[in-house]
Write a structure and sequence with these properties.
Length: about 170
Amino acid sequence: MNQTVSTNDPTTIASDGDGFVLNEEDARAIVDERGHYEQPQAACIEALKIVQRRHGWVPDGAIPAIAEALGIGVAEVEGVATFYSLIFRQPVGRHVILLCDSSSCFLTGYDTLYAEFTRHLGIRFGQTTPDGRFTLLPVCCLGACDRGPALMIGEDTYGPVAPEDVAELLEGYE
């Protein structure tokens, strides 16, 4: 069954035919977001974030559904989704750890902090713990240069973080 979100009726559920169904609440939110802008492309990042908040990532099947909801081309949505590093295109853990590897964080202990995360979690960048709890990713800057080395877990920013802080820090995230 191939349904689409009508630009006039946000209650219709979108599906790309591959099994992905855009949640009715998300469809409404995307259409509402589109209404804030003169150009519907401007709502693309927020639309991707709406889907990601519900699913934890943006499945391939969501791209055509988002495009239809915004009234733009699939390639436009795909281009935005693949450009932004915080739009996850594959499943991630319940908690994504973004470890800043910018110059200032690198100079203040990034390498020893990364080594502690890999030791403690048993994963490297781009991997998820076997229990699905954490995914570890590099990020080029968190805007916390005065607090390096810095990291984010979900929406929480930490810094400076010492290797000996890692175990206690992770305990707060089930």
